[in-house]
Amino acid sequence: MQLSVEELHEQIGKLEGWKLEQETLVRKYMFSEYMKGIAFVDEVAAISEAFDHHPHITIDYKTVTLRLSAKEESGLAALDFRQAHEFNEAFDKAR
Amino acid sequence: MQLSVEELHEQIGKLEGWKLEQETLVRKYMFSEYMKGIAFVDEVAAISEAFDHHPHITIDYKTVTLRLSAKEESGLAALDFRQAHEFNEAFDKAR
């Protein structure tokens, strides 16, 4: 179900570290060691398979960036935000 | 040690799937399954740590793109090509 503009802003307000760029949710995660970032990507992949929704991932040495676009044409939905919260939880464990 | 232009072209000719884009070696690797691409990234990370040289990695669903830039200002060296060959070997095992 698509979110209204108000709901979208409310959801982003609750989502640590993420911002909205052209209907895409973006967050950069920084790690103290390269292999910690890679272990985080493994967790992100497992979450992505569970949601059947795969963010665009870039790994630039110790920085991992996730970009999460709406799965349906209808725009970002509550599910995208639930997934982003799970990525944040994985980060809290991995860093 | 920096390679001459002739050596550079000779090395690229021997390197399956890679092309040169503005002094950066680039290859896109395609996988039949998302998790095979992720397992490949784990191998790429291990090789990168061994070389202490980390390519820029993007994961776009089942496509993994590696970008390998010269480590020193002096340009691409034989070592960059040895590393790219190792990535190709890892791909042959992972796909």
UniProtKB/TrEMBL annotation, chains A, B:
User: Gene3D superfamilies under this entry?
Assistant: Transcriptional coactivator/pterin dehydratase (3.30.1360.20)
UniProt-recorded name of the protein: 4a-hydroxytetrahydrobiopterin dehydratase
EC annotation?
A: 4.2.1.96
Q: Does the keyword Metal-binding apply?
A: no
Q: Which domain of life is it from?
A: Bacteria
Per the UniProt entry, what is one GO biological process? tetrahydrobiopterin biosynthetic process
State the family named in the UniProt similarity comment for this chain. Answer: Belongs to the pterin-4-alpha-carbinolamine dehydratase family.
- Give the classification, highest ranks: Bacteria, Bacillati, Bacillota, Bacilli, Bacillales
Q: Which GO terms describe its molecular function?
A: 4-alpha-hydroxytetrahydrobiopterin dehydratase activity
Catalysed reactions, semicolon-separated: (4aS,6R)-4a-hydroxy-L-erythro-5,6,7,8-tetrahydrobiopterin = (6R)-L-erythro-6,7-dihydrobiopterin + H2O
Enzyme class, top EC level, equals lyase
State the organism named in the record. Paenibacillus typhae
A Pfam family reported for this protein in Swiss-Prot or TrEMBL: Pterin_4a
**Which UniProt keywords are present, listed alphabetically?**
Lyase
